[in-house]
Amino acid sequence: MNAVIRTEHLVKRFGRVTALDRLDLEVARGETHGFLGPNGAGKSTAIRVLLGMLRSDEGRAELFGADPWKDAAELHRRLAYVPGDVALWPGLTGGETIDLLGRLRGGVDKRRRDELLERFDLDPRKKGRSYSKGNRQKVALVAAFAADVELLLLDEPTSGLDPLMGAVFNECVKEAAAAGRTVLLSSHIMSEVEALCDRVSIIRKGAIVETGTLAEMRHLSRSRVRATLKTPARGLEDHEGVHDLRVDGLDVECNVDAGALDDVLARLAAAGVAGLVCEPASLEQIFMRFYGDELAAKGVQEGNGS
Ligand code: ADP
Ligand code: MG
User: Closest residue (by CA) to atom 13 of ligand 1?
Assistant: First the structure.
């Protein structure tokens, strides 16, 4: 059994709101898995069920093959959790909090902890109540990355961090992956997930609408092709796999289905190519396929999703 996280038809309702609607999520050991969806899609609810903080109404959830609700205490020694809005014990210092969380988990590597404090530029001597949101976030991140655990559950963990610290966070996730840890990283920011994750699951209204590697998802999507030709191209106008074609003299721009790419490139080559740019679909474009209508209806700016 190689899945660290597995949910099957997981359902969670809050009154009339169905937050999880038969969610099937699977994360393999050692993988960094992106959990992507806009606000309200059900990411935090799924993670809270996996943490045993919420009880599901239907379906199954497993962590390391165990039941997150019944076996919470044992499971929590094997994982670290960072939410998007960290609450700390007001009277404990950051350092005390990190060490306490460490003892609840498998223990803290003290050298690693000190190194992380430095990298995140965090003063561990302040009391919990006096930290800013960003610094509370850092306390939780240092505690999580210093813990000797198999699984990191990170629920929009960078929401309070500035870009510089976002880069430190990215390095830490990569180091965790290199150390063999399994990471579930929820986000509504595609670029973050795109840079870090082996596989991605896209959640919409409490259900997974797409899951796979970025390469697999790109395969479903269109590449953007721009070419400067030597002679006019032929056979692109009515090509099934060519979309949004724009021809300006010898400059050609279009979006091309993955399956039509070699044929389209052959046609361009036949016309003679003076310049060529071909960009794979970004995760953002893939995401917009599932969410475009919904986000537009909410008046959300394309490209962010928040
Ligand atoms: P995400 O983390 O993807 O932004 P959430 O899991 O927080 O989404 O929320 C999913 C849905 O469940 C939303 O409609 C949200 O309003 C609702 N919800 C979440 N937690 C509660 C709660 N404790 N009580 C009532 N509704 C909730
Ligand atoms: Mg959330």
Answer: 40
